[in-house]
Amino acid sequence: MLVREGKVLWWQDHLARLQHANARLGFGEHSWDLLADEAAQLASGQTQAVVKIMLTRGAGGRGYDGAGCDTPTRIVSLAPYPEHYHDWQQTGINALVCQQQLGDSPMLAGLKTLGRLEQVMLKRELAARGGVEGIVLNSRGFLVEGVSANLFWRRGRTVFTPDLTRAGIDGIMRKRVMTMLKQMGIELRVVEAPLESLWQAEEVWLTNTLMGIVPVTSIGDMHYPSPVLIRRLQERLVIEV
C-alpha cells in the first residue's frame, strides 16, 4: 500500500478488499480497527513509503482443512518506496509478451492471495529475458494482466481492460482508473481479448497502487508514442491524492 505524507492512500479500498478476501477464504475474524491503527502507526512520519499487510488463517495442524487455525495471524511491515516507478511514470517502459501463461482459477480470481507462484515464475522469466514487465495471457490465449500490474489499452474513443473472472487480480488502482474513466465520460469495455488486440491499440498502460499509471511505450516491434489519455489520467490521479 502506498504511503504519502504519513497516510496510507486509499485505505478504505484496501480494507474492503482485505475483508472481502477474508470472508471468501473463510478466515477467522480480525480486529480491523487494530489493523488500521498498526498500518497508520507505520505510515506516520513517512514522506513516501510502502506498508504491506499479510493475513493468514493462523497456525494449526497438518492437512488442508485448517483445523486448529483458530487465531488468524497478521503481519504489517514497512518498506522504502521503489523510486524507479517515478521514471516509469514519465518515460514509460518496454514490455515483453510472457511465454508462460496463467491458469484459470475462477474460485480465486480477483483475490490478492499469498499463493503467487505463477507470478514468481513469470518474474524469473522476465529476469532471464532482461525485461522489467510483461504482458500475461491465460491458457486460452486471452489477455489477463501484467506480471505485477493490471492492463488497459485504448483504441479510438474506447478503453479496454481484461475480464478477470477466471484469472488475475482485481487491483485497487484498476478500480480507480475505471472510476476516473467513467467520470471523464470515456467508454470502458471489460473484455476477453487476444494478444492481437494490443497491436490495434493507440495507447497501452499498466497500473497498481505503487507504480500508479505507467505507459507501455513498446511491446516487441509495436510502439505506442502518444500517451495522450494516460497523461490525463495521471493528472487526475495527482489531484485525487
TrEMBL record:
Function comment: Involved in the biosynthesis of p-aminobenzoate (PABA), a precursor of tetrahydrofolate. Converts 4-amino-4-deoxychorismate into 4-aminobenzoate (PABA) and pyruvate.
Protein name: Aminodeoxychorismate lyase
Annotated GO MF terms: 4-amino-4-deoxychorismate lyase activity; pyridoxal phosphate binding
EC number: 4.1.3.38
Top EC class of this enzyme: lyase
Quaternary context: Homodimer.
Gene3D superfamilies from the UniProt entry: 3.30.470.10, D-amino Acid Aminotransferase, subunit A, domain 2
Keyword Lyase: yes
Membrane-spanning ranges: none
Family as reported in the entry's similarity comment: Belongs to the class-IV pyridoxal-phosphate-dependent aminotransferase family.
InterPro entries: Aminodeoxychorismate_lyase_IV, Aminotrans_IV, Aminotransferase-like, BCAT-like_C, BCAT-like_N, Class-IV_PLP-Dep_Aminotrnsfr
UniProt keyword Lyase, yes or no: yes
GO biological-process terms attached to the record: 4-aminobenzoate biosynthetic process; folic acid biosynthetic process
Pfam families per the UniProt record, alphabetical: Aminotran_4
Pathway involvement of the protein, from the record: Cofactor biosynthesis; tetrahydrofolate biosynthesis; 4-aminobenzoate from chorismate: step 2/2
Record organism: Aeromonas caviae (Aeromonas punctata)
GO CC terms in record: cytosol
Catalytic activity: 4-amino-4-deoxychorismate = 4-aminobenzoate + pyruvate + H(+)
UniProt keywords, alphabetically: Folate biosynthesis, Lyase, Pyridoxal phosphate
Cofactor requirements of the protein: pyridoxal 5'-phosphate
